[in-house]
């Protein structure tokens, strides 16, 4: 009787974990660019996530989007410079690269 109960509880837990994991993975894999989107909107949607910014100068900055203002974005935990942060002018960003799915 206890073994049956244990198996039922275990199956329920596995089911909950599977549903949670699929929701997390599905959330990470979604990105829809709206026709009216601006660079600020893309950055704001990625607040708290790791991104790589390609600047108009050709330089690339990789880090975590900490905060997005009207004209500036705060990037924390820079790649290769974990103790540094950066503030970047949104108008100087030509592209944003972000991880959307695992292989």
Could you give a short description of this structure?
By secondary structure, the chain is an alpha+beta fold.
Arrangement of strands in the largest sheet: 4-3-2-1-5
Total separate domains: 2
- Describe the sheet with the most strands: 5 strands, antiparallel
Give the termini separation: 42 Å
How much helix is in the residues?
A: 25-40%
Mean pLDDT: 82
From the helix content, strand content and strand pairing, which structural class follows? alpha+beta
**Share of residues in strands:** 25-35%
> Mind telling me the C-alpha Rg?
20 Å
| CATH class categorisation of the largest domain | Mainly Beta
Oligomer: single chain
N-to-C SSE series?
HHEEEEE
Q: What would the CATH topology of the largest domain be?
A: SH3 type barrels
Which residues sit in consecutive blocks of at least 5 with pLDDT less than 50? Answer: none
Question: What count of helical segments does DSSP give?
Answer: 2
List the helices and strands and how they pair.
Elements: H1 2-29, H2 39-45, E1 50-55, E2 60-68, E3 72-76, E4 86-89, E5 93-98
Antiparallel strand pairs: 1-2, 1-5, 2-3, 3-4
Description of the structure:
This protein has two helices and five strands; from the N terminus they run H-H-E-E-E-E-E. It has 103 residues and is α+β, with helices and mostly antiparallel strands. The protein folds into two domains: 1-30; 39-98, SH3 type barrels (Roll), CATH 2.30.30.100. Strands 4-3-2-1-5 form a five-stranded antiparallel sheet. Strand 2 (60-68) and strand 3 form a beta hairpin. The radius of gyration is 20 Å and the shape is elongated. It starts with a helix and ends in a 5-residue tail after the last strand. The model has no long low-confidence stretch (mean pLDDT 82).
């Amino acid at each position: 009787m206890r073994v049956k109960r244990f198996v039922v509880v275990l199956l329920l837990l596995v089911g909950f974990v599977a549903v949670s994991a699929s929701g997390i993975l599905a959330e990470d894999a979604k990105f829809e660019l709206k026709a009216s989107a601006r660079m600020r909107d893309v950055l704001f949607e990625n607040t708290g996530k790791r991104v790589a910014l390609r600047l108009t100068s050709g330089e690339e900055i990789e880090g975590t989007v900490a905060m997005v203002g009207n004209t500036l974005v705060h990037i924390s935990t820079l790649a290769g410079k974990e103790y540094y942060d950066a503030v970047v002018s949104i108008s100087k960003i030509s592209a944003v690269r972000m991880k959307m799915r695992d292989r």
